[in-house]
Amino acid sequence: MMKKFACLILFALLLNGCDDGDITVETIDFTKIESTSCTKTNELIYKLKSQEALLLQMPVETLKNNPTDVGKPALFSINNTNFRLFYRSYDGAVSKSNICDLIPPTTPKIINEWHAISGTIEIVTTAQTTLNETTQATTISGYTHNIVITNLTYSIEGMNVTNPEIVFGDFKTTIDDDDKLNLTFIIAPALCPDKKQLHVYNQNSAMTIDNIDQTLIQNVVTPVNQPRTAVLGATNNKLLYNVYKEGVLNEDYFCKSPAPTSPALKETWTAVNGVDGVSGIIEVTTTTEGNNFVHTIRLRNTFLTKENNKFNLGTSYLLGVLKTPN
Q1: Please, are residues 169 and 147 in contact by the beta-carbon 8 Å criterion?
Q2: What's the predicted TM-score (pTM) here?
Q3: Where are the domains of the chain?
Q4: Tens-place pLDDT, residues 255-290
């Protein structure tokens, strides 16, 4: 095996030569190997061949659940402290236990280890979505992080060995159960006393429409197939979906200014401004039931965004049914 690597380095020398004492090599190729991690925190991501390993260590939360801007990857510098890259070769078959176990097996033995002393980690993150064919709603199910390392320099037995680019490849993450959005509301919508906010909530999240068009909720039956409509906006008919960290929501939380500090806010999704007749449309159909008027409230083709994340509630999302006395 040692002879193999000596030949590789010699071959690289013949092909690429030296530049100021640095040797340029292009012998590490894990492009077709699937990457995985030791823990959910993704501090150590690795790829394994039969007798080789490529390991990338990064701080917790380096991989964000947020797509990067087009053409602007997230950049991190290898510093051999919190951002580290290793290449290892073994004298036998290597497995996850050799990488992840607190006390790794004694075999196979590491016969070569190259550690990166410099380089740039480039990460392009995209959201993976699933489509409900019936409702056309989309759900963010996870993220793909494409990792490329450029201008890489290894230290090999006192020599600096450079590699212009290593394609580490895709690393996929899923959304933890605690971070999945709960868009099911069992409790009926309610209007604040000033009728400026409509809200609906479950145990840990709420959807609100602020400065709602008051002509939408009228104690007048709508003609068949002629609902009242209005488009979502940045000020009027402003739709927010808020998720809370802890505690339990109840009706007392709403209709207060300023908003209560408990439960604490975790994240906010904002609806994209609507386009009349196309998207982001509030639709209200009013009927009667005994002494009450029944207002069925739907959102048509409504998109919610947070940073660079975006998903669609679907062609006809039922926000809820509001009852008002006659």
Answers
A1: yes
A2: 0.86
A3: 2-179, 190-325
A4: 999 999 999 999 999 999 999 999 999 999 999 999
